[in-house]
Structures are given as C-alpha cells and as structure tokens.
Amino acid sequence: MSNIYEYVRHPRAAELAAKKPVRVAHLRGVDHDNWLVRFNAKFGLKITVVVGTMWTAYLFTLLALFALPDAIKQGTYFVVVWLSSSFLQLVLLPIIIVGQNIQAKASDTRADETYKDAEAVLKEAAMIQDHLCKQDELISRILGQIGPLAPKAT
C-alpha cells in the first residue's frame, strides 16, 4: 500500500535552517570589494559611536552656551538664530543618535526572538510530520492485515 500523504518540505524551511538573522552588527564595515567603501563605513561608524553619546550632548550643550551671552547682547533675532542653529542642532544630534542606537538594539532583539520563534515552529512542524508518517505506516499495516474491504451486499 502506498503512503496516504506525500510530504514536500517548503524551500523556505531549508533557507531558515541554513542561516541566522541579519543584525545591524553584521552590516558594520560591510563591503564589498571596495576599500574606500569599507574605510568610509568604518570611519562613519567610529564618528557615530563617538558622537552618539549623552556625554557628547552635554559637551555640545556647554559649547553652545558659550555663545549665548553674545546672542543675548545682540537682540532677539540673534537669540533665535543661536537657539536654532547652535543649540538645537548641536545638542539634538547626539541625543537622536543615542535614541537610534537604542532602537537598533531593540530591533535586533526582536529579530532574534522572531527567528527563534520561527525555528521552534519549524522543529515542531517537523516533529508533527514525523508523527503523521509513523501513523500512516501503522494505518497501512493495519489495513494490510484486515485485507481489502468489500462492500456488503444487502
């Protein structure tokens, strides 16, 4: 007797088993064969790591405050210019980078958890498939012992 069901594994299952999720850390310094792209990526990352701290935000705040007395002496217009061009840009830049770094870590954590969940579901599905194949074999053996079932004449 032939199998009751022919299982065909989804190709995505093999892809999932072959690789891990891509994380932000994996993309740092990536490339390619171009030394200039690699240099720029490493240099940009280094600057981002240095500038993207709260200590840099505090330092930029102090730096911007040095210009505040002169802006106040020159009038309201210059206070607005100081606020928008010096203070907000200098201080908000590192704070935004800090926030982006936190969001990237959270995103990486979510990606890892989602990957682990998908891996667990895949393994459970494989176990279910194995169980069903064993049931098919047993059912086939039982049917082989019973023999062909003929309809009863009435």
What key phrases describe this protein's structure?
single chain, 154 residues
Give the secondary structure arrangement, pairings included.
Elements: H1 11-18, H2 24-27, H3 35-51, H4 54-74, H5 76-146
Helix pairs in contact: 4-5
- Can you write the helix and strand succession as a string? HHHHH
- Number of helical runs? 5
Radius of gyration: 32 Å
Residue ranges: pLDDT <50 for 5 or more in a row? none
Helix/strand-derived category reads mainly alpha
For the record, give the distance between the C-alpha atoms at the N and C termini, rounded to a whole number. Answer: 28 Å
What is the 3D shape?
Answer: rod-shaped
Helix content: over 70%
- Main beta-sheet annotation: none
Fraction of residues in β-strands: under 5%
In oligomeric terms, what are we looking at?
Answer: single chain
Number-wise, the strands total 0
What does the average pLDDT come to? Answer: 82
